[in-house]
């Protein structure tokens, strides 16, 4: 249930755990029905599906997507319990490596998140606020929305994130499908 627009490309989460991918459509307004996808994240080719152990290129079950406003995207990978960041996914044909991972200590871990703020358990919806350099991640198993703060200038390109808070902890959230970032009208954002 994720869509993200980055540059001239539309990214579509193929949420099924059978496909483990995000597909890319370059210049979608110029495409006709039945057009071939332009690229894929999480799999070596559009036509194949292979189950890979977690690493910087693999994906298990993409769920939420959001763009960073600078041509990059964040992908919530539900089964690998993480959010991966791709700084320039439109520039790759297939199988790009993520440049950062959030919710896990590294690309190869799938630690269950218990209650540690720095870990995710079942990330779903994601949204990025470029004005504050904050990434909001719904964690459906832990019933919370975690807020990751990018550090340094030019975020998120620095891809150094820390957890600043777990907003709405223990609020009986079950499955969050969308998060709207804070703005002048809704300073706390909406879930």
Question: What features would you describe in this structure?
Answer:
The protein is mainly beta and 191 residues long. Helices cover 0% and strands 34% of the residues. The strands form 3 sheets. It has a 4-stranded antiparallel beta sheet, with no helix packed on it. The chain has a 4-stranded antiparallel beta sheet with strand order 5-6-7-8, with no helix packed on it. The model has no long low-confidence stretch (mean pLDDT 80).
Task: For the structure shown, list the relevant keywords.
34% strand; four-stranded antiparallel β-sheet; 191 residues; 12 strands; mainly beta
How many E strands? 12
Helix and strand string, N-terminal first? EEEEEEEEEEEE
For the sheet with most strands, the description reads: 4 strands, antiparallel
Q: What is the SS-derived class?
A: mainly beta
Q: Tell me the span between the first and last alpha carbons.
A: 15 Å
Gyration radius from CA atoms, angstroms: 16 Å
Q: What is the count of DSSP helices, taking H or I runs of 4+ residues?
A: 0
Portion of residues in beta strands equals 25-35%
- In round numbers, the mean pLDDT is 80
Overall morphology? globular
| Strand adjacency order, main sheet | 1-2-3-4
Q: Could you estimate the helical fraction of the residues in percent? A: under 10%
Which residue ranges are poorly predicted, with pLDDT under 50 across at least 5 consecutive positions? Answer: none
